Amino acid sequence: MTPRSYLMIDNSELLRRLPQLPITHENAAHYRGYFERRLLINRCQDCGHWHHPPKLLCPKCWSHKIMPTDVSGKGHVYLMIWLHQGPAAPGLDYTLPHPVVTAELMEQAHLRFSASVLGAAPTKLYIGHGVRLNWIMRGDAPWPAFELTGAKSN
Ligand SMILES: [Zn+2]
Question: How far is ligand 1, taken at its centre, from the CA of residue 129, in Å?
Answer without folding.
Answer: 30
